[in-house]
Every structure is written in structure tokens, then in C-alpha cells.
Amino acid sequence: MKSFLILVLLALTIACGNKSTVYYPKPKGFERIDLPKQEYQMLKGNYPYTFEYSKAAVITPDITKDAEPYWILVEYPSLNAKIQFTYKPLEGDLTKLDKHVADAYKLASKHQVRATAQREQVVQLKNGKKVVIIEIDGEVPSHFQFYATDTSKHFLRGAVYLNAATMNDSLQPVVDYLKADSRRILETLKWNK
Predict the structure, then answer these.
(1) Whole-angstrom distance, CA of residue 173 vs CA of residue 154
(2) N or C terminus of the chain with fewer C-beta within 10 Å?
(3) What angle do CA 167, 40, 104 make, to 5 degrees?
């Protein structure tokens, strides 16, 4: 029996061989994100504004407790993201305009706790309109905010929100896609009333 046990151990030792196999853990990866094709359609409905938005998006009314008429969400179900639009009529009152602009900056500044940088710029669009764009870097839920106004009747603010963990490395393609869609919205923005 003793010699049988020695033969089994010897056979196991030979079977294992001299090669030392080293196992390495797989590197951390990110989910694959398939971005929708950038095709656009006109906003339909009785709004004081209109614009082109992605065919991959769905328009829903904003039903938050503070929502006002003409507030909408442009939701991207496949990207788990949305652009929230808040509309304010100005009725020729410049004090209302000042208040809405201050509110836009106040809402953007709420991200400064986790932001690494914030850039603001006035952009002259191809359609002749000027808009203010606020880009926020860092682990924040809203990387891109903007507002447009005709300074007398209309004020429209937009904010892009990601409904997922905000790891910039993995979500940067989504952020870039939504920035491009937001710029398309701004380029095609028209006031209706």
C-alpha cells in the first residue's frame, strides 16, 4: 500500500509539470454603450418654443411638484439620461429676466461641491441667437447646462442629467452625445408666440 501511495504522488507531481502558470485578474472595464444614431424630428405640441430633438428621445411633461406650464423632459431611455427644460415667460419685464438668469447660475453652482471645473461662455449660434452655455467637469449629474432668451418674451433653460453613476471615464461618450444633441436643439430653437 505504501508503494502505491508513493506512485500516485509521483504521478501527480509529474502530471503537474514544471510550468508555473500565473493567473492575472482581468482589468476593470466599462459597459459597452451603443449610442443612438443622431436623427432629429421637430417638437410637436402647443409650446411657446419649438426645436429639433433626437428621434431616440421621448418628450414627457415635467411633473415635479414645482413644474410650470411648458416644462418638459427630453428623455433618452437607452442612455438613462434626460434634458430638462424650464420655460419662463418674461412679458417684457427685465427684472424677471435678471431673476431667471440668476436662478440659472444658482442651479449650476449647486454642482460646485463635486465639480473640478466650470466654464461659461456666450455662444453665437448659426441661427443668429446668442445662448449661454455652462459646462461642468467632475463627478456631477449635470455636465451641460444652458439658457436662451429673446430678452423680452421668452426664457428657456436646459440642463442635461445623467441618471447613472457619474464616472466620467465610462460616461464621457454619453456626455458628448448629449452635448451635441443640446447644441442641435439650440441651433433649431424658435419662439412661437
Answers:
(1) 32
(2) N
(3) 55
